[in-house]
Amino acid sequence: MNTKHPFLRSRRDFMRLGCRTISTVGAAAAFGHLGKLPAYAQAPTEDYRALVCIFMFGGNDSNNMIVPVGAGYTPYQTVRQNLAIPQASLLPITTKANQTYGLHPGLAALAPFYNTDKRLALVANVGTLVSPTTKQEFLSGAKPVPINLFSHSDQQQQWQNAAPRGGQTTGWGGRIADRIQLLNAPSNFPASIGITGNALQLIGASTQPSAINGNIALEGSDHTPASDARNASLDQILNLESGVTLIQAASGALKGAIDVAKLVDGAVNSSTPIATQFPGTDLGNQLAQVAKIIQVRAALGMKRQIFFCSIGGFDTHSNQLGSQAQLMTELGQAMAAFHNAMGTLGTQKNVTMFTESEFSRTFQPNGTAGTDHAWGGHALVLGGAVNGGDMYGKFPSLTLGGPDDSGNRGNWVPTTSLDQYGATMASWFGVSDLVGVFPNINNFPVQKLGFV
């Protein structure tokens, strides 16, 4: 299975068809017409807030992302063997409880945001859960647990829809968008935008996301006589009444795609280029697009926006050290550039960026210098409103067969749920109906973790 960008299949395929049909369009909108947006002269609002998700597809080995140092390093090194990162290479950090850890050296660009700026928070051992579950309850079957644990596709879906037992067709980001529609009124611009395609996480019951594949600009639409003629012909085709429901729906979606692209393209072209230099990586380019859209938030009439970006390649069953080092470097540099860009735009306190991955990986390596599918893992949260410089949740006991190991290879039972993780950000975003977004949140005595 492709674990790089596995979005919801039916919607993904439909939008891909649309983008192929009109190759000049760099952004694909959800169904429906957008209507008129507020005047471009509107001043930025202090009430603006945005959530930016970075999904690490494949299952990030967070055991090497955050590593105990000092007395805790020897047990780590003993188990990790050829996957152990040398202690001298780790980036030292200390929690407010004076616990010492080291960040993966690839995250060097992020370390100052933890140690100095206090805008980077770590969330330990988070994963999909129905309710708080101990190792004993998991092994005895005393508590319901997520279906198809350790499956890429199922856990990617559950991380995005917060429905570990199934039965949910919307995503938790989409359900947030449903609940903040009035905050964006009268703008009809989509509140949720997938930068690498349509994501289940962004699909709501009454709201639908846009999907940007590549550049925001309308490629090939350069206002020459030839391009104007092509655009006029396409408009005529899309406005024809075909009488066929599916074709009519597709035409509406494609016309909406053009409307979105024109609106964003026009707003971006009339704004000052962002001075921040983004790395020329896939994730760096994605976050650069997000920054451009946030820059023109007032022109689009937006007070709340949700973005979904992704980086793949974390399914490291073999030769993990080198490949994860490259991925961590790409992640750290892109996140740092984006946070700095938000400072340039004066929106650092308005934007919270966070990571997700379907699961972590076994603490004990396999026989091919890699790791296998596991469960609970660590996450990063970065933003001006983040209470950083600390770790939230409970770091697992790194003992094979120990109190946090569901088996005997270091497969950690999560001690923090996705629901708690997401509800913390949803509450900051302005959502009061947490149960409507996270149906299982009432199963957890602590609903908000306090990192933002």
What topology emerges from the helices and strands here?
Elements: H1 9-21, E1 27-28, E2 49-56, E3 66-68, H2 73-80, E4 91-94, E5 100-103, H3 111-115, E6 120-127, H4 135-140, H5 152-161, H6 172-179, H7 181-184, E7 192-194, E8 210-212, H8 225-239, H9 245-269, H10 282-295, H11 297-300, E9 304-311, H12 320-345, E10 351-356, E11 377-383, E12 390-392, E13 416-417, H13 418-429, H14 434-437
Parallel strand pairs: 2-9, 2-10, 6-12, 6-13, 7-8, 7-9
Antiparallel strand pairs: 1-8, 3-5, 4-5, 6-11, 10-11
Helix pairs in contact: 8-9, 10-12
Characterization of the model:
The protein has 452 residues and is of the alpha/beta class. The protein is built from 14 helices and 13 strands. The strands form two sheets. Strands 1, 2, 6, 7, 8, 9, 10, 11, 12 and 13 form a ten-stranded mixed β-sheet that branches. A three-stranded antiparallel β-sheet has the order 3-5-4. A hairpin with a 5-residue loop joins strand 4 and strand 5. Helix 8 packs antiparallel against helix 9 (245-269) and helix 10 (282-295) runs parallel beside helix 12.
